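@channel anyone free to eyeball this complex?
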Amino acid sequence: MKQPVLEIRNLNVDYGLGGKAVHAVRDVNLTLHRGEVLGLAGESGSGKSTLAYGMTRLLAPPGVITGGDVIYHPGQAEPYDVLGLSDRGLREFRWNEVAIVFQGAMNSLNPVHRISTQLTDVLRAHQPSMSEHSRTARAREMLKLVGIAPDRMDAYPHQLSGGMRQRVMIGMALILQPQVVIMDEPTTALDVVMQRQILGQLIELRERLGFSVIFITHDLSLLVEFSDRIAIMYGGRIVEEAPAATIYRDALHPYSKGLLSSFPALRGPRRELSGIPGSPPDLAGMPPGCSFHPRCPRAFEPCSTAIPVLGRPEHLTGAGRSVACWLHPVPIPLEKN
Amino acid sequence: ACGESPNANNANASKSVDFLKIGMPNGTQTENHNPFAGTSSANALGYKWMLYEPLTQWNPVKPADPVTPWLASAVKWADDYKSVEVTVRDGAKWSDGQPLTAEDVAYTFTLIKGNDALNQHAIPFGDITVAGNVVKLTFKTPQFVNQNKIMASTPIVPKHVWEKIADPTTDVNKNPVGSGPYTLKSFTQAGVVLSVRTDGGYWQELPKVKELRYTSFSGNDTQATALANGESEWSFVFIPNAKATFVDKDPANHKLWAPGVLGIHGLYINTTVKPFDDVKLRQAMNMVINRTDIFHQAEASYFHPEIKSVTGLPDGAGDAFIAPEYQGKTFKVDVEGAKALLASAGYKLNGTTLNDPAGKPVKIKLSDPAPWSDYQTTLEIIKSNFAEIGIEATVEKPNQDVWDANVQKGDFEASMRWTNGGATPYDIYQTVMDGALLKPLGTAAQQGNFGRFKSPEATTALKAYANSTSDAERTAAMNTIQKVFVEQVPMLPVGADNVGGAYSTKNWTGWPSDADPYSGMQPTQPYALQIVLKLKPANS
Amino acid sequence: MKYFLQRMAFYLFTAWAAITLNFFIPRMVPGDPVQALIAKYRGQLSSEAIASLYVLFGLDKQGSLWSQYLDYWKQIFQGDLGLSFTFFPAPVSQIITQALPWTLLLVGVTTIISFLLGTGLGVLAGWRRGSWTDGLLPVTTFFSSVPYFWLGIIAIYLLAGPDSFFPSSGGFDSGLVPAWDQYFIPSAIQHSLLPALTILISSVSGWILSMRNMMVTVSSEDYITVAHAKGLSERRVALSYAARNALLPNVSGFALALGFIVGGTLLVEIVFSYPGLGFTLLQALGAKDYPLMQGIFLVITISVLVANLLADVAYLLLDPRTRKEG
Amino acid sequence: MTSTQDVDVVLEAVGLTKHFPVRRALRQLFSKQRSAVHAVDDVHLTLRRGHVVALVGESGSGKSTVARLLAQLYPRTGGDIRLHGASTTVHGGRQFRRYASRVQMIFQDPFASLNPVHTIRYHLTRALRVHGNNGDLEPALHDLLNRVSLTPPERYLDKFPHELSGGQRQRVAIARALGARPEALLADEPVSMLDVSIRLGVLNLLRDLKERLNLAILYITHDIASARYFADQTLVMYAGRMVEGGDSETVTQTPAHPYTRLLIDSAPDPDRLTGDVDPLDEDRGNGEPPSLINPPSGCRFHPRCPTAMPRCSTDLPVRLEIGDAPGHWAACWLYDREAVS
Amino acid sequence: MAIPTSSLDQVIPGQGAMAQPATKPKRQRFLFLRNGKAATGLAVLGLYVLLAIIGPWIAPYDPSARSNDLVQAPSAAHWFGTTHLGQDVFSQILVGTRSVMYVGFLAGIIATTLSVLIGVTAGYLGGKADDSLSVLTNVVLVIPAIPLMIIITSVLNNASDTLIALVIGLTSWSWNARVLRAQTLSLRRRDFVEASRATGEKTWRIIVFELLPNLTAVIASGFVGTVIFAVLSEITLAFIGITSNNGWNWGTILFWAQGQQALGQNAWWWFVPAGLAIAVLGTALSLINFGIDEFVSPRLRSAGKTKLRTAAGGTVRMRIGFTPVLDQSSSPHTQARYVATPVARKVGS
Ligand SMILES: Nc1ncnc2c1ncn2[C@@H]1O[C@H](COP(=O)(O)OP(=O)(O)OP(=O)(O)O)[C@@H](O)[C@H]1O
Ligand SMILES: Nc1ncnc2c1ncn2[C@@H]1O[C@H](COP(=O)(O)OP(=O)(O)OP(=O)(O)O)[C@@H](O)[C@H]1O
Ligand SMILES: [Mg+2]
Ligand SMILES: [Mg+2]
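replying in thread with the prediction:
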């Protein structure tokens, strides 16, 4: 069995406090294993980014982590709770262990510094003993790795195209050889050709360097192609989690099914698309019970009253599957701390 | 940090104070020591009279007193005042060591004669000749009324220096050579430092004050603050509520002395505007003005001494000139008398409104530029005074240029303004009443008679006073002039011009005072030199 | 390069417009210098001096407006600004060179200090929101709304006085001559403290506020989050990432402020009787001294333009995005 | 093509060309050459009643420019736009309004294309008013909202855009376009800013409108799969030029032009196995689209083309029939029979 | 062409349309009143407006009327003491409010109108019109306002408040015009403008009904800023005696107080209140401006709230880059925070 690197347990994230708080992530349990690509899907506003930034405490105000643990397993040492780190500890932890590629590359790069500066200041902060020369050399190496000519080292972000910027960000994420790379919609701003090129490169690098990836997008067909395991979020919760191929072939949750039938396929027979009726829920006024039930074609009695628990449905034996749906009731909830 | 610093000797402050700090509120200065230029720093700060000296000194506080010989040992005017013989003092030396001679005096007047721009008093010079140490000046018209302007207000300059100057009107006289007891030490835009002469060539005993430090302040406020703080020891500036803001800061040393002189401030009435062409109305208005209030509230109880004599002549300086019939006659606020007078002239007081004989309410617009706060306060007081006899006054504050133009063109109803001043009351009355200055409405009357006052009697008398050859004739003319002024009320006199100053006795004593009014008190006038010569260290 | 040429064209045009305006504005002002001089010396200057002054100022002969305008340009190109009336016969250029250093030193230095201090505090306030720095804001808001002259006068009343360290007026001790020596410089500094302090108090808040707002805006940019995610030190994130970007818009504000140094010092100089250009302008105005007014306006406009030019250059250096190729 | 089809032609672009002048750089100041962005070059397309034509291509290939040219929002540099066969050029004013009442445009971003300060009622009222509906507007408004399935209409009329979801906003935008009772609808990426789950609803609505109102629709997208799903005919654009066209199924299933193939191969495909080495990986070459200021000579795709021939860099390829299906063509020398044979 | 534009460029509402639900529409427009700063500012401003209207009627004395209480300290009869003429300072302040508010607001309206006309037109039309309007704007911007105002005012004889407001308004529109131009440029590129053009709307309708409503917050903020500037300018002009205004305003009071050396005679009551009145008015206007700023820029708004109150009553300080972690002692799975606690390996898998 694969080793876990990052375990998210019962994570709760709110925007704001008190009565007006928006519960953007609720009771999320998720485990990322060493070397795997974990896809996180769900429509806009389902809490994917919140989850990703929440686990490294990078949410902008008024985000507040109201509960849960994020347990990180370093290779050799004892695992520890990331949320419990001191500021200094957290700074050391960041990028060394978990690096993030943010949604918009243009906005992720500081417009007034050369990319060489932005690459090397990671090294300067985390490996102060490193010489200036070897820092530059390392930065150069990283750029080469992501397919950017090292002579663009001294370019400013605005002098690079969108794809190049995104690749710089990927290179920057890998510069310290972290265990985990979180990628929040890294390719939505790019066209398909570029998207494939970058993702292909990333998969290749993962094979060489052995890091794990949390890959966030709402493009399920992309996820299915590129990730090992997929977790689907709806209304701040994970509603289904399974190996990619399993989800694609046999999604259990009606929402997952709906998502999958919203994409026209390019190849194969023209299948009829059903989509998902209704509109995404308002996080401030979540419906009681399963938050998907107002849109669910198969909703029945318990859906509107009780929240389904995420777990392995009893009638299934497939490895690493779990779903939160009353159609597939879970016998005993998974371990509770 | 170089040894030859011009500031080096300022550092040894442990010595007892041997300098005097003089301030004037005249703004930034540029270096110009030309004594003839009205715009020069030497003129604005007054230090030209410490470098250059006049032929005689006169005392504006007691204008009837005889003049004090200065560079001239004697001055002899012809009876008709169309020529004068000046005997130049022996032993005076210029600061460059050359002797001061009659040639220098003659050259000075020739210079003025030849340059209209230097002839500030518009003196009609005739021939100028030298005979030994006597200079004879002739004039095209009698100069009785101008005698002190010629003798006491003309700085005598060295011929050997000035004849080399290409254009005396624009030269800044960078290295002034004068006959006075001081020489220029340094100039900055904020002030000037003079130090006492060291060549031993001054013709009198040198003053005790070794250094005069002139500072130019940005305006009245800063100057007054500096006086209160002791940063200035002598100045001529309007200090509002002087007792509280200045004297009380150091009652033992902070002093004010502001004697009146022959020049006054008053409310000019435009005598062409109905109903103010009516003498009776003007008389009534004159009767209700509360000059005491104005003196205390607008003039800080000192600045423009209250005019008491009905002739408009200030106490002290004017005493010698008051006609016998007006001796002892002083202004009193007499509202009832004014009302009675108006009633007799056909005016009707209708409640609080005075109606003229034609039945129209009497209204008057008083105007003066806004920044002249003492005038503005005066107008506010006059306004409430007029209200007591039913005249509704409004105060207008046009800007200064507009006001200037309006007053000169006769486009005003009433306005506070000054008169010219001089050694005799002639200048005062001439400014107000001279028919020779009369211009039609709409044409600028630049020199006087802004109220378009027509009185052939006054015009003749003024002319007679200036041109006659005997004192008796002059006295008769002056009496006539005063009679017209008092009876016709072309202007409502309010306060006297003053030659005052604020000073501190902390370091220096010997200032003129009521007890010893040996001169005026302004640091910018010729007599300032007389004062400086008399100052003694306070602690000696 | 194209950008640069465009800017140059703009500067030339603006300079022409402003200089032309300089020529016409004083001529709109009614009144004439001689009358003004006489009124200034209420009763001290005799009415007879009028004619002599007209001759002196050369006002008795003047050509058409157009020929005056041409002459004016000719003079400007010869670096000749004419003679002042108030300080006749001092050349305008001399008066300006005499006053300008004071203005530049006092207000220039304080403007720079104010900018640096305000920006620094603004960075702090913007970065550490919710800490004590929040208390700074109401105070600074209040001080930025106080009329400057009022503050200055109150400062003189409270702090300057006969026995106080702070002189109430002037640029240096009377009796001293401007020189770079151990007597003059301390005196000049001592005299400049109170004016500088009041300028600082009333101007620093503007910088604090604008910098704080920019910091807040920039702080929520993605690249700041990225910088945090990269585990950079707080200092580096705050300064090199947030403040560095937040500074950019403030640079143009700073340039404008630099430009207005010369024109905006009027009140300081009036209140503190401090030597300088602003007060000279007011005097010139009161005296209808066209040549001086024109000269000072010229200096002001040129300094504003130069400051803007510098800001453009600074912007070019600070913001790589403006350095577009081509 | 039959003549009955020609009767149905609503809007036709013939050799449509648009160059955006770029401000001259300094060094060009002295040369006569004027540089321009060659955003659209020589584009032919035909919109027919009840037909959807899809225009696909990567970002910056000139798709939006084509739409705006057709809507006469930009003056064109060359070519012709024919409305019912008649050449039209409008500059503004009444003429423009008359044109706008027949050809309407829907923008990519429903969040930006509605003015946030106005209600839905305002937006729709303006559309009706401008196009001469001066009577009682209430029934017309209801009708419009019903048509885009925003029911009941009263619930939406007085809402502000921010109170609606993205899909609802896009429906309002469509309703506004319908307010002019157009014959042709130019939909510029109408769903790319929308969430996956709502996209479908909007596309289905458009299809429904096409059928019910017999509209001619130009559907612009970079998602070639949705073109397959939604459009009758698909045109592929690359760097300002049309490179391939034909009925959607043919173009997507048997792409002819190398660029179309690249596009289709790049599209995410769940059926592809994870970890497989990408078949196109090696010969993709430089992934950057070309500069449109100095577009490559000959075929604009040749610098990236795995099958480029010497001829491709010199000669501009012409439309060549592929022959596998009627109307399928590609602008590629690979299909030049004379050269091949 | 413009000199690098202001920070406002970056806070244009709804630039990232997905991220931010664009500008607040009407119903939420007055939401900014909920902003404490804006509400305080508006309350104070309201008081001033009220005084401006009723001041002359409630003033206990005629502000110009002399009395025999010369330079009296504050007392029950004279709340703010008296002047050297025995005038009541409190009445002068009350009566002076009207002129200050009138000039401030009129100048604000004039400058704002000009800046909207010129800025928005330049931004929307672009091309030659933009170039020439921009040059005009920049020339006016470059010419120093206060000296120009002094010169113009000194030309005008006995300028009325209206005339002074006009002068101030005419010399102070350029900065706002530049900001508005930049805003308009960015709005013009927004789809809804194109969309209404595509609908067939007329240009003037687009400017007036589509663009302007979206600029209201920026315009309002510029207006408030100009009012502050105008008030300070009016007072400064009066103080240095350039305006020969016959009526009372706070600058006139200060002019008299300074001319009479009020502080020198320890008559602080004569000098201090007018200055404070100005400062408080300025502060109130600034507060409103902050409110508007925060309203326009959601980032500033949420940044205002740096402390959040938990249900338990504690506060949590927000920090960028370090999301607070709430200590929920009730929660069973909470460890001691802020210590890197090793967690037993068994919990995994
Ligand atoms: N600052 C905030 N204040 C209040 N609610 C917020 C804030 N930021 C995000 N949210 C809410 O939190 C929820 C989750 O947002 P999040 O950004 O995690 O979604 P996402 O799944 O990443 O969506 P997308 O696919 O659009 O990126 C959304 O409903 C959003 O409205
Ligand atoms: N107003 C304009 N001025 C100059 N160049 C322009 C203008 N509008 C578009 N372009 C250029 O024309 C080319 C085509 O742009 P267009 O917007 O039509 O592309 P697109 O295919 O719609 O791209 P996307 O998928 O990103 O919307 C681009 O290179 C763009 O930079
Ligand atoms: Mg997201
Ligand atoms: Mg587009």
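from a first look: Chain B has 16 helices and 22 strands.
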